[in-house]
Amino acid sequence: GSPEKISELHEHTDKVDSIQFCHSGERFVSGSRDGTARIWKLHLRQRWRCILLNMSATLPGAELVSEEESYFKPKVTMVAWDRHDNTVVTAVNNHLLKVWNSYTGQLLHILKGHEAEVFVLEPHPFDARIILSAGH
Question: Which of UniProt's keywords are assigned here (predicted)?
Answer without folding.
Answer: WD repeat
